[in-house]
């Protein structure tokens, strides 16, 4: 049976709204206590901890938002990366010995050029850009992240996909010794994702190699991850080792695990609620008050760049 149901943690165990808000209340109480004691809020001085810059002469992008960036400590310390842990702080703790060098990516399927390529060979011909994007989690929290990366379409063109290639499939490293979370059947490993070809070629879609002007940390998906800013965060697969051009819509991890809760498209849409909570509003982290203080935007605010790809589609059916 290709689709294996989780045995110890179900897809419905993904952080519920009530659990999430309870965590926020605890953070609020902790912050209030610190402020009362004359201390700074937990993330107020986060930028001071940013490592020395690794990338120089980054190309800026007109697609970047001017919104305030989420503090570095929160971007690197609050992560959904179930290959390490189902706890938000677990990936940062459990990824210290993750080996992302050397790294290679297998290019397969409906393309003229296929094979296994080192990360350096994939990246070297391209100019790295900074893309400051909103990131919207399906759990109704959001961040603003300064990624460093390359348009995915520019890389894919080098492999000359055939006209029969309708989708692009991605796969994460499958290595339980490095990913302790893979020893538990939270999902049917390895993690899998996919995009329609036009989504993959959209200029907003990037392969990221860094954030905050430094190489990706393991908990953020080192050394190479997808970033699709108009879709819920689980579409942006981390630690990629395989890219495959395919004819049919590929099976994807969360859709396989909970098809009624996690669609293949996963476009951010305030009008389509998750079965267990509304998506109309979101918590923009780091919020000290745990309230849904921001209205969710259709396609996460990138409708001008992506809405035409879904013209005529029933977005409730193809959620």
Automatic annotation (TrEMBL):
InterPro entries (alphabetical): MsrP, OxRdtase_Mopterin-bd_dom, OxRdtase_Mopterin-bd_sf, TAT_signal
Any GO BP annotation: protein repair
Cofactor: Mo-molybdopterin
Domain of life where this protein originates: Bacteria
Family: Belongs to the MsrP family.
The protein's assembly and partners: Heterodimer of a catalytic subunit (MsrP) and a heme-binding subunit (MsrQ).
Protein's UniProt name: Protein-methionine-sulfoxide reductase catalytic subunit MsrP
Gene: msrP
């Amino acid at each position: 049976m290709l689709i294996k149901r989780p045995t110890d943690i179900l897809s419905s165990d993904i952080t519920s709204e009530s659990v999430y808000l309870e965590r926020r209340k605890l953070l609020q109480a902790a912050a209030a206590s610190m402020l009362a004691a004359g201390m700074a809020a937990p993330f107020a001085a986060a930028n001071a901890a940013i490592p020395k810059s690794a990338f120089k002469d980054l190309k800026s992008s007109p697609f970047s938002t001017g919104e305030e960036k989420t503090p570095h400590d929160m971007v690197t310390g609050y992560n959904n990366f179930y290959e390490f842990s189902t706890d938000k702080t677990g990936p940062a703790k459990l990824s210290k010995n993750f080996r992302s060098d050397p790294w290679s990516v297998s290019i397969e399927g409906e393309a003229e050029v296929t094979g296994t390529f080192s990360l350096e060979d994939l990246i070297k011909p391209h100019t790295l850009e900074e893309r400051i994007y909103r990131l919207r989690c399906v759990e109704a929290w959001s961040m603003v992240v300064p990624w460093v990366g390359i348009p995915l379409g520019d890389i894919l063109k080098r492999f000359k996909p055939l006209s029969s290639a309708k989708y692009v499939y991605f796969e994460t490293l499958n290595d339980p010794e490095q990913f302790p979370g893979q020893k538990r059947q939270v999902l049917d490993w390895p993690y899998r994702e996919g995009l329609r070809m036009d989504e993959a070629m959209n200029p907003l879609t990037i392969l990221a190699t860094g954030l905050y002007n430094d190489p990706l940390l393991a908990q953020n998906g080192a050394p190479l991850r997808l970033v699709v800013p108009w879709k819920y965060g689980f579409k942006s697969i981390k630690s990629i080792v395989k890219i495959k051009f395919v004819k049919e819509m590929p099976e994807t991890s969360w859709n396989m695990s909970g098809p009624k809760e996690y669609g293949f498209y996963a476009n951010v849409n305030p009008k389509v609620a998750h079965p267990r909570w509304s998506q109309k509003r979101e918590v923009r982290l780091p919020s000290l008050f745990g309230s849904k203080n921001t209205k969710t935007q259709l396609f996460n605010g990138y409708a001008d760049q992506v809405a035409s790809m879904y013209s005529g589609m029933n977005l409730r059916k193809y959620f």
